[in-house]
Amino acid sequence: MEDPLETWRAVNAYKVYTLRANRVESMAHRVNIMLDEVAWSVLEQFPKGERSKVVNMAITEWERSRRRPSAVQRMDALGVALPEISTAEIVEELRKDREYTK
Hints:
Elements: H1 4-11, E1 17-20, E2 23-26, H2 37-43, H3 51-81, H4 87-101
Antiparallel strand pairs: 1-2
Protein backbone atom coordinates (compact mmCIF):
# COMPACT_ATOMS: atom_id res chain seq x y z
CA MET A 1 0.00 0.00 0.00
CA GLU A 2 1.26 3.50 -0.83
CA ASP A 3 2.22 5.87 1.93
CA PRO A 4 -0.81 8.16 2.48
CA LEU A 5 1.44 11.13 3.19
CA GLU A 6 3.21 10.70 -0.15
CA THR A 7 -0.15 10.51 -1.90
CA TRP A 8 -1.24 13.67 -0.11
CA ARG A 9 1.90 15.48 -1.25
CA ALA A 10 1.25 14.35 -4.82
CA VAL A 11 -2.28 15.78 -4.85
CA ASN A 12 -1.81 18.74 -2.53
CA ALA A 13 -2.37 21.26 -5.31
CA TYR A 14 -4.91 19.13 -7.22
CA LYS A 15 -8.07 21.05 -8.13
CA VAL A 16 -10.69 20.65 -10.80
CA TYR A 17 -11.48 23.82 -12.68
CA THR A 18 -13.50 24.84 -15.67
CA LEU A 19 -13.27 28.01 -17.70
CA ARG A 20 -16.58 29.82 -17.91
CA ALA A 21 -17.08 33.40 -19.16
CA ASN A 22 -13.34 34.15 -18.89
CA ARG A 23 -13.13 33.26 -15.23
CA VAL A 24 -12.10 30.09 -13.48
CA GLU A 25 -14.69 28.41 -11.30
CA SER A 26 -14.22 25.44 -9.05
CA MET A 27 -16.56 22.57 -9.86
CA ALA A 28 -17.50 20.84 -6.61
CA HIS A 29 -20.36 18.74 -5.27
CA ARG A 30 -20.90 17.89 -1.62
CA VAL A 31 -21.71 14.21 -1.01
CA ASN A 32 -22.07 11.96 2.00
CA ILE A 33 -20.49 8.52 1.76
CA MET A 34 -20.11 5.55 4.09
CA LEU A 35 -16.59 4.14 4.53
CA ASP A 36 -15.53 0.92 6.18
CA GLU A 37 -12.95 1.02 8.97
CA VAL A 38 -9.99 0.26 6.68
CA ALA A 39 -10.84 3.03 4.22
CA TRP A 40 -11.50 5.48 7.06
CA SER A 41 -8.21 4.65 8.79
CA VAL A 42 -6.36 5.54 5.58
CA LEU A 43 -8.39 8.69 4.93
CA GLU A 44 -8.13 10.05 8.46
CA GLN A 45 -4.33 10.19 8.11
CA PHE A 46 -4.77 13.15 5.75
CA PRO A 47 -5.38 16.70 6.99
CA LYS A 48 -9.10 17.56 7.18
CA GLY A 49 -8.91 20.11 4.36
CA GLU A 50 -7.26 17.65 1.98
CA ARG A 51 -9.48 14.58 2.29
CA SER A 52 -11.84 15.58 -0.51
CA LYS A 53 -8.89 16.00 -2.87
CA VAL A 54 -7.59 12.54 -1.97
CA VAL A 55 -11.01 10.92 -2.53
CA ASN A 56 -11.44 12.83 -5.80
CA MET A 57 -8.00 11.71 -7.01
CA ALA A 58 -8.71 8.08 -6.07
CA ILE A 59 -12.04 8.06 -7.93
CA THR A 60 -10.48 9.74 -10.98
CA GLU A 61 -7.63 7.21 -11.06
CA TRP A 62 -10.09 4.33 -10.63
CA GLU A 63 -12.10 5.61 -13.60
CA ARG A 64 -8.97 5.89 -15.74
CA SER A 65 -7.90 2.36 -14.87
CA ARG A 66 -11.41 1.11 -15.72
CA ARG A 67 -11.21 2.65 -19.20
CA ARG A 68 -7.75 1.29 -20.05
CA PRO A 69 -8.83 -2.32 -20.75
CA SER A 70 -11.58 -1.21 -23.13
CA ALA A 71 -9.11 1.02 -25.00
CA VAL A 72 -6.72 -1.93 -25.33
CA GLN A 73 -9.55 -4.12 -26.61
CA ARG A 74 -10.46 -1.49 -29.24
CA MET A 75 -6.82 -1.25 -30.37
CA ASP A 76 -6.59 -5.05 -30.60
CA ALA A 77 -9.77 -5.11 -32.68
CA LEU A 78 -8.30 -2.52 -35.04
CA GLY A 79 -5.16 -4.61 -35.42
CA VAL A 80 -7.21 -7.58 -36.55
CA ALA A 81 -9.27 -5.48 -38.98
CA LEU A 82 -6.34 -3.71 -40.66
CA PRO A 83 -4.51 -5.36 -43.55
CA GLU A 84 -1.01 -6.71 -42.96
CA ILE A 85 1.81 -4.59 -44.39
CA SER A 86 5.29 -5.88 -45.10
CA THR A 87 8.41 -4.17 -43.80
CA ALA A 88 9.39 -3.34 -47.37
CA GLU A 89 6.09 -1.53 -47.92
CA ILE A 90 6.57 0.46 -44.72
CA VAL A 91 10.11 1.45 -45.73
CA GLU A 92 8.91 2.50 -49.16
CA GLU A 93 6.13 4.68 -47.72
CA LEU A 94 8.57 6.29 -45.28
CA ARG A 95 10.95 7.09 -48.15
CA LYS A 96 8.14 8.65 -50.17
CA ASP A 97 7.09 10.73 -47.15
CA ARG A 98 10.65 11.93 -46.52
CA GLU A 99 11.06 12.90 -50.16
CA TYR A 100 7.75 14.73 -50.14
CA THR A 101 8.58 16.74 -47.01
CA LYS A 102 12.03 17.89 -48.21
